[in-house]
Amino acid sequence: MKQTIAIQGIKGAFHEEAAIKIFGKEIEIEPCLTFKELAEKLNNDEIELGIMAIENTISKTILDNLELIRQYNFQISAETYLRIEQNLGIVKGASFDTIREVQSHYMALNQCRDYFEKYPHIHLVESADTALSIKEVAEKGSLEFAAIGSRLAIEYYGLELLDTSIETNKENYTRFVLVSKRPNVPTNYNKVSLTITLPHQSGALAKVLNKIHQWNSNLTKIESVPIEGKPWEYRFYLDCILPEIPDKGQMIESLKPITDELKILGKYISKTEER
Asked: What is the pLDDT of residue 275?
């Protein structure tokens, strides 16, 4: 039986490529237009697994997705890094002379704006999803429209490649995580994602960072977001590569006395080397 994975977007989206990277090609995709819709389907047990982008090397951290993972009490069980190559898809016969509008997700457009500076007559239009943009351009069949997205989507929806790798920064990677309602912790996990709140006092964050250092754990990410309804108070999101010790949970337990709240978002195997 094929594994079914919920993704933001439709078939051909970069989220599908991430799912394939984790599970292989023998999967079924459950499309969701938004990450909120994906979270609701997971929460309602309509689907067991979902893929969510949480960080891009150009567009930075997608904090709303970290918040969704925390709010719905989801657990991260795997991660993968995907080199994002943005490509320009057209209907047969189109060219830069005929194209008047290029559509895609806002993040994809941001990654390619420099490319279109030499085509001032082309209007860039934001849409909900890269693959959906490609599908819509294919359905319109007009020489005036083009879309930016993955080769997978361009091929699947029958467009032609006008140009490839049009993103400005060629070191453009997105980090995706696999989430579910129920923990599925690999026995050889070496990475943990946490969210914490701290006492509103001097040195509170320093105590946490010092404790992580004492355990010889590598803090690979830290982000803060304002806590809704509590002006000037913040929630922190942390990723740590754990030390090679028999009980990795000891480091996590040692943080609890110096935090107001600590929640584990996932224990999984680091794939940093994929970048």
From this structure: 62
Q: Say what the pLDDT of residue 2 is.
A: 84
Q: Can you spell out the DSSP letters for the chain?
A: -PEEEEEEBSTTSHHHHHHHHHH-S-EEEEEESSHHHHHHHHHTTS-S-EEEEEEETTTEE-HHHHHHHHHTT-EEEEEEEEE---EEEE-TT--TTT--EEEEEHHHHHHHTTGGGG-TTPEEEEES-HHHHHHHHHHH--TTEEEEE-HHHHHHTT-EEEES---S-S--EEEEEEEESS----TT--EEEEEEE--SSTTHHHHHHHHHHHTT-EEEEEEEEEPTTSTT-EEEEEEEEPPS-S-THHHHHHHGGG-SEEEEEEEE---GGG-
pLDDT per residue as tens digits for the range 117-163: 999 999 999 998 899 999 999 999 999 999 999 999 999 999 999 99
Residue 70 has pLDDT above 80, yes or no: yes
Cβ–Cβ < 8 Å for 234, 260: no
For the whole model, what pTM was predicted?
Answer: 0.91
Question: What's residue 273's pLDDT?
Answer: 67
Q: Strands of 145-149's sheet, edge to edge? A: 123-127, 101-105, 145-149, 87-90, 160-163
Asked whether residue 58 carries a pLDDT value surpassing 90, the answer given is no
Distance CA 195, CA 225 (A): 10
Contact 10, 130 (CB under 8 A): no
Of the chain, the end-to-end C-alpha distance in Å amounts to 31
